Known about the structure:
Elements: H1 8-17, H2 21-34, H3 47-64, H4 66-76, H5 80-84, H6 91-115
Amino acid sequence: MFPIPENTDFLLADAEKENLYLNLIEQINKDFNLANEGIDFPLSISPDELKIQLHEKIYRMIQYKFAEYLNLLYIIDVPENEIKSLDGSDLVILAEQVAFLILKREWQKVWFRNFYK
């Protein structure tokens, strides 16, 4: 069944190991564009750079575009209970945790699509 990653590094390593990393980037780009949040990660982006840029994007959205941030979470289909369980006292940590939840949900979509094709 779907292997639930413990953190972002394990998730990205799994994606690379299963040769689905490019699919993950494409899924992220697709869902961000569906939410009208133009983001275009190049397929050549390294996992570390993806992690950093996604964290920065989420941080800026929480600070300056909160309604768009909520819309993005809805479009990606991040579970509401997981978002509510986060501690929002430190925005930097919150953005990092939300970025992980987004990656986890996107990875789930890619993994299931590949597993059941």
